[in-house]
Amino acid sequence: MMMSQKTLKEAIGENLRARKITFTLAILALCLHPMLFADIPSPLTTDDTLVAIPVLRISTRSTDNAYTVSYQINLENVESGKTYPLNFDVGSSNDYEFVRGLPPGQYIVRDYASYGLINSPNRPLSVQKPLVLEKGKMSLLPIKAISIIFTRNRDNRALYSIDFDEYDERQKNRMIEILSKSKNFAKWTH
How far apart are CA 190 and CA 38, in angstroms? Predict the structure, then answer.
């Protein structure tokens, strides 16, 4: 009995140490990470909308790239009250995921859930800024997804964590500057 309690305490301690390490890695990566992204898709029509979802993916080993988790963020249209899902994957090396075709309007970010590799119930998100979609324009989701995979060497088990964080105006301007280097950026009015 004492052995199992000691093992549990050791596991909890390892988990806390892993969380501290992953948090430190996340902060460093936010400052040093070069932005990579799949090219921005072209608009299909002049009424098309595009949401760019900033994704920061941090892993402790290159073999962690085998993990892909799918997410759904639910947006509520302020005018109609209708809920629209934003489905995207975290697992590639892309720092942006793109979702097109939502109706123009103002949206509130409500909650998210994961599915696929990890299934979770909807979890609320407290986001202060709304998402505003306009015809023919690309908009940044007002939060960035931060995905962390930490693999322990002893048993090769992975700890997976996702968090969503609002960004400030300086970070937004930097993201737009990086996205502006895409050949399709100019096709979306701003």
Answer: 19
By 3-state DSSP, what share of the chain in percent is helix, strand and coil, each rounded to 5?
25, 40, 35
What contacts 56, CB < 8 A, 6 or more positions away?
Answer: 26, 29, 30, 33, 95, 144, 145, 146, 147
Q: By the 8 A CB rule, do 142 and 126 touch?
A: no
Contact yes or no for 143/109 (Cβ under 8 A): yes
CA distance 45 to 187: 11
pTM of the model: 0.73
Cβ atoms of 106 and 132 closer than 8 Å: yes
CA atoms within 13 A on the CB side of 126: 0
In angstroms, the CA 86 to CA 103 distance is 12
**Residue written as token pair 């048993």:** 155
102-117 residue pLDDT tens: 999 999 999 998 876 6
Identify which of 23-27, 64-68, 102-106, 143-147 has the greatest average pLDDT: 102-106
Is residue 71 within 8 A of residue 112, CB to CB? The reply is: yes
Rounded to an integer, what is the distance from CA 57 to the centroid of its chain? 8
Taking residues 164-172, what's their average pLDDT?
Answer: 92
